[in-house]
Design goal:
22 helices, flat, six-stranded antiparallel sheet, about 425 residues, single chain, alpha+beta
Length: about 425
């Protein structure tokens, strides 16, 4: 029995822990497919990925075991050494679609334009997953020679995921030849969102004008709302009149969506330098419709300190009365993302119920050795108030909504 047949999975794991590259390379010659695969995988570990393994790994791209071949391609992609480009190009012809996928993905990770022509040819592969990874690889290469082929894929591939990926790639490559086709693709529901995101990435002056035009065009309501969101994020004065016109016949749900976009951009570091009084008029239209005081910032801090009693007093006398009034159905909608982020339940009760729940939690927070201070904030654009217990590097949130008759509240864990 040869020495390599004595190598076990446990030994491979120990070599991996010791970062024994030489030992792992020797294990590549094992007669056992599982051992070869484990060795290849270990060489691709984040804290190994040594270029000394490239040449020993290349022959495994033709290993008799499919899983070993695939793992070899993946690991070579992780190592990102140009010596693997030629063999990986050859692997694009492998009979197994899974191998072709991994080879395309690896070539994208390496990012060498030697592979451009072959990746473009792979856009015609019969296997949809292979085409998808070829599109993604071309996005990583970022070469403008791929623009026309990617436009064709966006327009003609029957798989909407691949068409959307092609639109994403065009946005990253950022070539003006793609602007017209991307704008036309807004009418194709299968790729419209990807096309919109791609257009937003392309810092071309024509894009804003086209998106403003689309707000009054023959597009579905969901896409128009997405376009309005992107125009707010861009913050260009060209969009002011089209946005105000767009808002005239929209429901409260659309206003709620857009006010949250404003809340996001108000916190961007570059916003102060680009906003204008003219563009602020869009925010005022939305704020007026939703009953948000336009003379206030999107959020207002009404208390910072370490006293639990003072926190409770500010919540009762200031935060709750100034929290925007919502219906129960609106609150349930607002609560969804918080539930997903915080993993918390939603409670319903009176002011007394809230105070009782807050007091015990805040007292426990205040004795934590990492505790620094409390804050109480009103988030006008998020239709809520929030008490926060701040610790070194983190915080706990206690969010409050108001129906005018009852309070709804939830707590982060």
């Amino acid at each position: 029995m040869g020495i390599f047949n004595k190598i076990t999975a446990k030994k491979i794991e120990k070599m991996k822990e010791r970062k024994d590259v030489s030992g792992l390379i020797k294990a590549l010659k094992s007669k056992e497919p599982d051992i070869r695969k484990l060795s290849v995988s270990a060489l691709g570990s984040y804290d190994i990925r040594d270029s000394i393994a490239v040449l020993p790994l290349i022959p495994l791209l033709k290993d008799e075991d499919l899983e070993t071949r695939k793992e070899a391609a993946t690991t070579l992609g992780f190592i990102r050494d140009a010596r693997a480009v030629g063999p990986l190009i050859e692997a694009l012809k492998d009979i197994e679609p899974g191998m072709r996928e991994n080879a395309a993905s690896a070539l994208g990770s390496i990012g060498d334009t030697q592979a451009l022509e072959q990746l473009i040819e792979t856009l015609e592969d019969v296997a949809s997953d292979v085409r998808y990874f070829a599109v993604s690889a071309l996005e990583e290469l970022g070469d403008k020679r791929a623009v026309e082929p990617l436009i064709q894929i966006m327009q003609n591939d029957k798989n909407e995921v691949i068409g959307g990926a092609a639109a994403d790639a065009l946005g990253k490559i950022n070539d003006s030849r793609a602007i017209g086709p991307l704008f036309d693709a807004l009418k194709d529901e299968k790729v419209s969102y990807n096309a919109l995101m791609a257009l937003e990435k392309m810092k071309d002056h024509r894009v804003i004008g086209l998106l403003c035009k689309a707000l009054s065009g023959d597009y579905n309501s969901k896409l128009k709302l997405w376009i309005a969101e992107e125009l707010i994020r861009i913050g260009d004065d060209q969009a002011v009149e089209p946005l105000i016109h767009y808002l005239k016949d929209k429901d409260d749900a659309s206003y709620q969506t857009l006010v949250k976009v404003f809340d996001t951009v108000f916190h961007r570091e570059d916003w102060e330098g680009k906003k204008s009084e003219k563009f602020d008029s869009v925010y005022k239209v939305i704020a007026k419709r939703l009953g948000i005081p336009v003379d206030k910032q999107p959020e207002e801090t009404i208390y910072e300190g370490q006293n639990v009693k003072e926190v409770i007093e500010k919540v009762c006398t200031t935060a709750i009365p100034q929290t925007p009034i919502l219906t129960e159905s609106q609150i349930n909608s607002e609560y969804g993302p918080i539930r997903d982020a915080w993993g918390t339940g939603l409670y319903k009760g009176t002011v007394e119920d809230l105070v009782k729940a807050l007091q015990s939690r805040l007292k426990n927070d205040s004795v934590d050795k990492e505790f620094s201070e409390f804050s109480v904030r009103i988030y006008y654009t998020q239709n809520c108030s929030q008490v926060e217990s701040h610790f070194k590097g983190t915080f706990k949130g206690y969010r409050i909504w108001n129906t005018g008759k009852k309070l709804f509240f939830c707590f982060s864990t």
